[in-house]
Amino acid sequence: MIRAWKPGVPGVSEVFHAHFVGHAYPPHTHDAWTVLIVDDGAVRFDLDLHHHGIGTPSVTVLPPHVPHDGRSATEAGFRKRVLYVDTSILGADLAGAAVDQPTFFDPALRHRLHQLHLVLARPGDELEAESRLALVRERLCTHLRRRAEPRPVPVHRLAGDLRDLLDEHTVDGLTLERAAEVLHAHPTHLVRSFTRAFGLPPHLYLTGRRVDLARRLLLAGQRPAEVATAAGFYDQAHLGRHFKRHLGVSPGRFTGRRSPASATAATSPPSSSTADGE
What we know:
10 helices; HTH_AraC; transcription regulation
């Protein structure tokens, strides 16, 4: 079961609530930061080729442009709530610290995120949501800056150039031969350099970028048939196949469950109506 929507809060590109049993995310990346809490079950994931696990007491942040996957740690599956926030909320300079240690055991931070999700599910309370988001941001930044000196995620120059090229051609696509011509590199060397730097081959990276674009267009109200070509897929069936592999549901079911009015988690505790302070 999935509920997803775009709230009217600057810096938050998507709110995503899901209950998965048996679904496993393939390796992929996002433009935005992923701020994740698990309400039931446990999740295992690889981030930058390192293994991690998270459960209900913790908060996890995954930086943009760093490959990760995800799967349930138990046969019963898991329930999670996610905020996708851009670098105006969490700066790109914090990415290295998040890669080193993406999970925090901070009950106060987790409670603040829970309260923020409740407010985001109520249209008309955007000012309160912005206030709560500011408190979440402050605490996340404190955690990340307290870690070892933030470092940039190392990227081989050739791999980074190919990533930029793929980003420029997310919709229209790019052949490996053309990329090799532009970057003056052998195609095989391009693939190996990219995979070594980012943990997934160029074609999977491009597919993930297209799925990310498709979900934004769907949340903006476009129909799946329109989204398919607008996001660079051959047709609606092509979109549906990759969308379901990434998110566990079809594009139609993704948009059909995005209503924020029903987005609060059933087992979550109640919250007060005003933003909490220190």
